[in-house]
Amino acid sequence: MSTWFVAGASRGLGLELVKQLLTRGDNVAATTRSASRLDEALGSVAHERLLPLELDLTDEGAVTGAVTAAEKRFDGIDVVVNNAGYGFLGAVEETAHVEVRRMFQVQVFGTWNVLRAALPSMRANGRGHIIKVSSVLGLTAFPGWALYCSAKYALEGLSDALAGEVAGFGIKVNVIEPGYTRTDFLKPPALALPENQVAGYEAIREMTEAHLAMPGSQLGDPVKVAAAIIEVVDSGQAPLHQLLGSDSFSLAQTPVQALTGDIEAGRKLAFSTDIPSPES
């Protein structure tokens, strides 16, 4: 039996993960904006090993209190899953300051709050596992997804650095990068749109309509995705970056190839900026 702290648990992938963990007998501390909504969503799933934590992840004090409550209730935390987040589809020009700030407060600052609260005990115990649910859009980017991608790219960098920082303490880190998964992610409020649209971005309007019509047709099975996350933790053998979904796997190839091409194409200019060594 392990104890999991799951941030963002009342819908979608987080909810499915909580259900599977409770069903198999793990302890779960689950954060949500609405404990009643989480309770209703769990339905007949046994709740005796569940600690629902109603809080705003951007409130550092509240997050610290929630982590402390989970550690006290279950005598420590083995796995932290940062899953909270939402999508945003709109052009850079039409994305308001308040929309940018909110995205980073939830996706980046909220994650940082959880990590700062959970890591001290993990370090002291010499073990632990951090799972960050990112997206294939943390590896590649498309027009209209700039705000969402920028937050996911930030989390990818955070996770890469964190993995190196905590490996010596016996703490593992994995970044999960799913493709399109059949959850409510592409439905409001999980998908936000700019309050003030700018004329001229017809292609992004078309993309928005296509994504709003997509629910129910995504390739990814949330049950299998949640099970895969559990497997990543149980096996301890997954790569730092774990893609999930054939679409995610395919989409990730393009930026790798493009970056490799850019590096090679810029080789001559890159080397031209070095200060010559005395021997040359």
From TrEMBL:
<protein>
    <submittedName>
        <fullName>SDR family NAD(P)-dependent oxidoreductase</fullName>
    </submittedName>
</protein>
<keyword id="KW-0560">Oxidoreductase</keyword>
<dbReference type="InterPro" id="IPR051911">
    <property type="entry name" value="SDR_oxidoreductase"/>
</dbReference>
<dbReference type="InterPro" id="IPR036291">
    <property type="entry name" value="NAD(P)-bd_dom_sf"/>
</dbReference>
<dbReference type="InterPro" id="IPR020904">
    <property type="entry name" value="Sc_DH/Rdtase_CS"/>
</dbReference>
<dbReference type="InterPro" id="IPR002347">
    <property type="entry name" value="SDR_fam"/>
</dbReference>
<dbReference type="Pfam" id="PF00106">
    <property type="entry name" value="adh_short"/>
</dbReference>
<comment type="similarity">
    <text>Belongs to the short-chain dehydrogenases/reductases (SDR) family.</text>
</comment>
